[in-house]
Specification:
By secondary structure, the chain is an alpha+beta fold. The protein contains three helices and three strands, in the order αβααββ. It has a three-stranded antiparallel sheet. α1 packs across α3. It is elongated and about 80 Å long. The relative contact order is 0.14.
Length: about 100
């Protein structure tokens, strides 16, 4: 084999290896996203089943208890069919000032 043929074969293997690594990385990313969604659903379900209140929790509360960022909580709630987002209003101005998350399953 000539050098240019070897380089071509090495390039083909590099392409295949890149595709395999990308597939594993995507699978890991999706597993991580599913884990965060399940973590949010489990926590909100437990809070609602405790029956201390309606189970509504703010983003700040969830950040503290779940160890997730606000963005991760928002993304997990949008991916979930069991987490409902509700708006809290200021009684004086009647304007929205709080976002609540509650388990609705």
């Amino acid at each position: 084999m000539k050098w240019n043929e070897w380089i071509s074969v090495i390039g083909d293997f590099a392409t295949i290896a890149t595709a395999i690594i990308a597939a594993f990385a995507y699978f890991g990313y999706r597993c991580q996203q599913t884990h965060k969604r399940e973590k949010l659903e489990t926590y909100l379900r437990a809070e609602k089943e405790a029956r201390k209140d309606q189970g509504e929790r703010t983003v700040l509360h969830l950040v503290r208890h779940l160890g997730m960022t606000e963005d991760e909580i928002m993304q997990a709630s949008f991916r979930s069919k069991l987490v409902e987002r509700r708006i809290g209003k200021d009684p004086e101005t009647d304007l929205a000032n709080t976002l609540f998350f509650v388990y609705s399953g």
